[in-house]
């Protein structure tokens, strides 16, 4: 007997209250739970059924990933219409001058159109991050710098394309915040349930 449209739409989820997790996605891990090619996925780190990633992080990017079975909230966080901020730490080639930083702040032209203005700060010192298992591409003759960028949209590889557009390719990229939720003291591969205050801050984003 064919299932009704409502039955077809209903995703599998746990029978209890919604789950809200945060995870430090390591480098070279796919933002999905299965992979037919045997690559590392979320299943190798998060043994929680029915939760799904909120948005994506590229395989070569690291940092904060939210997971939940609350589909309405996941949609609210990922739909660009709602302009929820996402903050990244980017290690870039060469030290950006004021002009490059101002271009990022004002929005740059990419092949899929101009970006929205971003909040951008050049960091005086490298952030205290764990080492990456695969070292970045390093050239002694080319210095690197760290910038913190907050964007309110989520195009494919957007931060990398933005920094490249102003002449400073990204060598390492870590997402440290999604909306009100921060990476805090998680280490690569670690996850935990959101605290009560973190859950409340997220749920306030729902309509």
Compute the gyration radius: what is it? 18 Å
Give the mean pLDDT.
91
So, CATH architecture of the largest domain? 2-Layer Sandwich
How much of the sequence lies in strands comes to 25-35%
> What would you give as the CATH superfamily of the largest domain?
Alpha-L RNA-binding motif
Can you identify the CATH class of the largest domain? Alpha Beta
Number of strands: 11
Classify the secondary structure makeup into a structural class: alpha+beta
Q: Can you count the helices?
A: 5
What is the H-and-E element order?
Answer: HEEEHEHEEEEHEEEH
Fraction in helix: 10-25%
Largest sheet: 9 strands, mixed
Low-confidence stretches: 3-10
Shape: globular
> What is the total domain count?
2
User: Looking at CATH, which topology of the largest domain would you report?
Assistant: Alpha-Beta Plaits
The span between the termini is: 36 Å
